[in-house]
Amino acid sequence: MARQSHTIQVNFRGGIIPPGILLELLEIAEAATVTQVRFGLRQQLLLDVPYKLLPAFNTACHDRQIDLSEYPNMLSTYPAAGIFLHDTWLVEGIYKDIFNQFDYLPLLKVNICDSKQTFVPLFTGHINWISSHTAHYWHLYLRLPGSQELFRWPELIYTNSIAAVSKAAETLMLRGLEPAAVFNDIKALLSYIFRESDGEPEFPAFHLPYYEGFNKQDNSYWLGIYRRDETFPVSFLKEVCRLCMETRTGQLYNTPWKSLVIKNIDAGHRYLWDYLLGKYAINVRHAANELNWQVEDNSEDGLIIKRYIIRHFDVADVRTYGLCFSVRMKEQTSLFGNIVIRKKASRHGSKLKYMQRYDILYTAGFNANSAVLAPYREDVSKEQLGPYVASLCKLFYEQRSETDMLQHFVKAQQSPVMKADTVRKVHQCVACLTVYDETVGDEWQEVPAGTSFTALPEGYCCSVCEAGKENFREIAVTVTS
């Protein structure tokens, strides 16, 4: 039977959802008899519009300037800022500055991620920007479409150059150039701000923070909403938008886990959100072993496999902390996960469900950011998936041996004792935010450490943007020694 509807994708760049725009979109969708919507792995909104009502839906969206782009959405860690990320230079304003640089719609997947978090996958894009330890400088990893191999850019690239380098890299990658050749061509043709890389970065071990329910955030709350079937009632989301607007809670986001996050809920307004959740019977306290899954968008068969394995986890009381699972049913997609359940192509062309078989794989070293997969069990029936995946979870914990844990503890004990934070005055360029610290000096301009800002020559300029000395202002920074 032919499908009676068309799936529409609406991109919310970086996962930021303006409640007013979402409300307008939902009202248009409701007029087209849409009752449920979904969120995708790349922080986009997905909705199924009946074909006969599609022209009217498209016209209404065009009239209200709502973009129905087919291009991949730009994914970011913005939803994690302030709730899972605190001690970082990548604050919310910098994300918006980066998004505003993109005056074109990327054809390839672009990720903008903070290196200190494990909430948003780092390498699921084709052009993956990951913050470095140096403020305003980024690691760049390229991955050709259809490939799982990552190329690390040999340099750190400055924030203001992200969009220009992304556009140039995309153009060359779509021509079929290998990433190493992309680097060489961009070096020859494009002027951008960079500094030498200090080697391969170290990323934190994967741990998925619990992203559901009401959670304290300083003097306010944030609320995470996950849906077991991945669908959100249009009527419920409309009231979410209205409540955000009426209480001036403008911070509404969607995540790569197909969930919603509302930040900065005033403590005095919490009862309103409790009422709304109760009115629509929205559960916000699911088990953690149900939240750490990535299933392809629009894949009911993938959700069935997920539910089947989770039921076994519940019965067998399986621990899954530090693990993430992905279910790949349709194609070799770039899903995030250190344990992978992959549907096998039928050898005999049979469409019978009981004939279907699956492979169980895991990433090298159980590193969730790795794309190198090792087989664990092959040609497994659906009925065998639960026990085998549970056994693989056990293997994960066995490999984190007692000896390794003890060595880590001893090494930590031998590390220097951290001293209390101190406040120091430095000077910052107002044009590009580069900092001059007299305790470090400026080796690029042969200024030795210990040279005070007032002792710099009159002709001194910013080593990055070449702004004059008069464009620096004194600021206070907190330093841990």
Helix/strand-derived class? alpha+beta
Structure summary, number of beta strands: 24
Q: What fraction of residues sit in β-strands?
A: 15-25%
Low-confidence stretches: none
Average pLDDT: 90
Q: In percent, how helical is the residue content?
A: 25-40%
Oligomer: single chain
Quick structural summary:
With 481 residues, the chain is an alpha+beta fold. It has helices at 19-31, 54-63, 92-101, 162-174, 179-189, 234-246, 270-279, 288-291, 300-316, 382-399, 402-414; strands spanning 5-11, 16-17, 36-39, 44-50, 75-76, 110-113, 127-131, 137-142, 151-152, 155-158, 194-196, 213-217, 220-225, 231-233, 252-254, 260-266, 293-295, 325-328, 339-343, 358-363, 373-380, 421-429, 435-436, 472-480.
Describe this structure in words.
Helix 9 (300-316) packs across helix 10 (382-399). The chain is an alpha+beta fold and 481 residues long. Strand 22 (421-429) and strand 23 form a beta hairpin. Strands 5, 6, 7, 8, 9, 10 and 11 form a seven-stranded mixed beta sheet that branches. Strands 2-15-16-13-12 form a five-stranded antiparallel beta sheet. It has a five-stranded mixed beta sheet with strand order 17-18-19-20-21. It contains eleven helices and 24 strands.
Tell me the layout of helices and strands.
Layout: E1 5-11, E2 16-17, H1 19-31, E3 36-39, E4 44-50, H2 54-63, E5 75-76, H3 92-101, E6 110-113, E7 127-131, E8 137-142, E9 151-152, E10 155-158, H4 162-174, H5 179-189, E11 194-196, E12 213-217, E13 220-225, E14 231-233, H6 234-246, E15 252-254, E16 260-266, H7 270-279, H8 288-291, E17 293-295, H9 300-316, E18 325-328, E19 339-343, E20 358-363, E21 373-380, H10 382-399, H11 402-414, E22 421-429, E23 435-436, E24 472-480
Parallel strand pairs: 5-6, 6-7, 17-18, 18-19
Antiparallel strand pairs: 1-4, 2-15, 3-4, 3-14, 7-8, 8-9, 8-10, 10-11, 12-13, 13-16, 15-16, 19-20, 20-21, 22-23, 22-24
Helix pairs in contact: 1-6, 4-5, 9-10
